[in-house]
Amino acid sequence: VATMNTQVISAHEDGAIAQAVEHLISGQLVAVPTETVYGLAANAADDIAVQQIYTVKGRPSHNPLICHVSDAAMTERYVDVNETALKIMAAFWPGPLTLVLPKLQNANIPTTVTANLKTLAVRCPQTDFTRQMIETLGHPIAAPSANPSGKLSPTRATDVVEGLGGKIPLVIDGGATDVGIESTIIGVQGNKLTLLRPGTITADDITEHTGFPVFDRADETITAPGQLLSHYAPDAAVRLNASKANDSETLIGFGNVAAAINLSSSGDLNEAAKNLFACLRAADAKNTGRIAVAPIPMHGVGIAINDRLKRAAAPRDNG
Ligand code: TXA
Ligand code: MG
Questions:
Q1: Which secondary structure element, helix H or strand E, spans residue 141, and what is its range?
Q2: Phi, psi of 8 (to 5 degrees)
Q3: Separation of 18 CA from ligand 1 center, angstroms?
Q4: Residue whose CA is closest, atom 13 of ligand 1?
Q5: Which helix (H) or strand (E) holds 293?
Q6: Looking at residue 220, what is its pLDDT?
Q7: Structure confidence at residue 316 as a pLDDT band (50, 70, 90)
Q8: From ligand 2's centre to the CA of 251, what distance in Å?
């Protein structure tokens, strides 16, 4: 990818939506804020633009993208929305929840978006700028997290510029994201629900609203080949469940753990999720080469935080 000038504009600037939409219509990529992490957006109907996403991120071509929609009506043009999916959408959209649904045969979605799968992942983001941008475009956008593949997800516009500056023309700055980790992903096959990626909306939350159990993806054959074990990786090596730092380690605390960097000194799991990637970046910036992370309770939002940490700590040599 040729080096280009990366422009950063505020989401609140006059004409910001129009400028972003113009870029998308002309086949260019735009990094946009969502409530979870920043996304790298292309018009989902534009095959060449979608290919650019893979190139710019260095993303393996077998890892499919999420289509972001502005509402349920737009969703129904692309996927088969059954009663259970509709119930989940009504309860949690707009919000940090992605559904994997059967793609309609006549859906105008290039195979590059789905990596040739027969399903399509759909999500309606909460951040007004991005939802309104999609509504104005009139099409879904395909948008993975706006980071080089395998690295920490971006929760601030400056994180996007650090990772992808010079490779994309436009970044929309909507401030630090509220949720801080990627959306929960639920696979829907009839009434069978499968947790494909944990997030701040938990499996219990989904069961409460649908009455159906949510199965763990570990019980399933892998449908998304993109879930490589090493992911969300800082430059430093990561050690988990550490009660204190060893020599040369930078400690990330949680709750009542004395550490210069703390995910949430009050032990609030939502706050910890919001701070997770920024804390990992801050620990990386200490350049000690080693990060140790205090134990995070394995319940509620802690399940999603531990999922990200496990991948951050995984061996990096996965080809
Ligand atoms: O919060 C989020 O979901 C953020 C923001 C930008 O919306 N997006 C995000 O995208 O995390 P990405 O590409 O980093 O992660 C998408 C995940 C990948 O693990 C991919 O394998 C999975 O979704 N996925 C996409 N389409 C799928 C499908 N049809 N079936 C199963 N998994 C799918
Ligand atoms: Mg990602």
A1: strand 141-142
A2: -115, 125
A3: 26
A4: 144
A5: strand 290-293
A6: 52
A7: confident
A8: 24
Q: What is the DSSP letter of 77?
A: T
Reading the block at residue 69, the tokens are: 């929609």
Confidence of residue 228 (pLDDT cuts 50, 70, 90): low
Is residue 269 scored above 60 in pLDDT?
yes
Q: pLDDT tens digits, residue range 5-64?
A: 999 999 999 999 999 999 999 999 999 999 999 999 999 999 999 999 999 999 999 999
| Distance from the alpha carbon of residue 246 to the mean position of ligand 2, in angstroms | 30
CA distance 49 to 55: 10
Going by alpha carbons, the residue nearest to atom 3 of ligand 1 is: 183
- Judge if the beta carbon of residue 195 lies within 6 A of ligand 1: no
Distance 266 CA to ligand 1 centre (A): 31
Contact 311, 230 (CB under 8 A): yes
The pair of three-digit structure tokens given for residue 196, joined into one six-digit string: 């494909």
What confidence score (pLDDT) does residue 231 get? Answer: 85
For residue 303, give both structure tokens.
Answer: 């399940």
Instruction: Report the SS3 class of residue 240.
Output: coil
Can you tell me whether residue 16 is helix, strand or coil? helix
For residues 300 and 265, is the Cβ–Cβ distance under 8 A? no
Does 140 contact ligand 1 (Cβ within 6 A)? no
Say yes or no: CB of residue 184 within 6 Å of ligand 1: no
CA distance 278 to 316: 20
